[in-house]
């Protein structure tokens, strides 16, 4: 038997085909198209969030690196200034001794005295551990450091009693470098400031200021028993 012609098929089933086509178009526009659009929008939103997070992480890393460079430059400049000041003092003292007829090499004497003191047994890690375990709030700082000033300003708001709070200026004591080595061992970071509350390091200047803004600093001081 011959197959029916297209015309015959359309005569027999044309209305059914038309209705099915209209129904398919309706279902697509009503349900399928919005679902596809919604899925595409969600995917685009996820990709945008991921991109924003990557950009934010990259910027934060750049900021941290810039701060570390600034801190390192501060320390280098301060060390140079201390050395220049030491040399000026030695030269002035030598001139004064020559003017008064006093023999001897002052610089050599100071160097020998420094060498003798460096031979003294100083345990930086024990020093840091004893401090943070015996005093609730301790800041290891440097007097010229802008970041250290930020941390000290954040804590100054609480007007902590002196028996609960100590600031150790590493540039003003003899074994500052040894103490910084100990800070690296204990906290994982050698730079200052290092802020300890209740024996635990909460970070540096930025972390301390952020803890102040969020209220976490107040909670830590309450837990340490230094405020009520």
UniProtKB/TrEMBL annotation:
Xref: InterPro entries: Glutaredoxin, Glutaredoxin_subgr, Selenoprotein_S, Thioredoxin-like_sf
Keywords from the named record: Coiled coil, Membrane, Transmembrane, Transmembrane helix
Keyword Secreted: no
Coiled coil spans: 41-99
Gene3D superfamilies per the UniProt record, alphabetical: Glutaredoxin (3.40.30.10)
Bilayer-spanning residue ranges: 12-28
Boundaries of every Glutaredoxin domain copy: 137-202
Protein name according to UniProt: Glutaredoxin domain-containing protein
Molecular function via GO: glutathione disulfide oxidoreductase activity
SUPFAM superfamilies tied to this protein: Thioredoxin-like (SSF52833)
GO CC field: endoplasmic reticulum membrane
GO biological process, alphabetically ordered: cellular response to oxidative stress; intracellular protein transport
UniProt organism field: Parascaris univalens
One protein family per Pfam: Selenoprotein_S
Top-rank taxon, per record: Eukaryota
């Amino acid at each position: 038997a011959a197959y029916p012609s297209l015309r015959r098929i359309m005569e027999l089933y044309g209305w059914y085909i038309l209705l099915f086509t209209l129904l398919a178009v309706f279902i697509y526009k009503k349900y399928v198209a919005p679902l596809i659009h919604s899925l595409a929008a969600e995917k685009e939103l996820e990709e945008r969030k991921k991109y924003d997070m990557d950009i934010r992480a990259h910027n934060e890393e750049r900021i941290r690196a810039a701060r570390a460079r600034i801190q390192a430059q501060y320390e280098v400049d301060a060390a140079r200034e201390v050395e220049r000041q030491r040399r000026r003092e030695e030269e002035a003292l030598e001139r004064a001794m020559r003017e008064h007829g006093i023999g001897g090499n002052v610089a050599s004497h100071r160097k020998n005295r420094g060498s003798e003191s460096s031979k003294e047994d100083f345990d930086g890690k024990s020093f840091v551990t004893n401090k943070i375990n015996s005093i609730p709030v301790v800041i290891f700082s440097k007097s010229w450091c802008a970041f250290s000033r930020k941390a000290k300003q954040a804590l100054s708001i609480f007007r902590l009693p002196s028996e609960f709070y100590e600031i150790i200026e590493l540039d003003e004591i003899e074994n500052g470098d040894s103490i910084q080595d100990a800070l690296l061992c204990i906290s994982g970071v050698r730079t200052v400031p290092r802020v300890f509350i209740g024996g635990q390091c909460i970070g540096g200047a930025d972390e301390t200021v952020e803890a102040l803004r969020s209220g976490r600093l107040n909670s830590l001081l309450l837990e340490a028993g230094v405020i009520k």
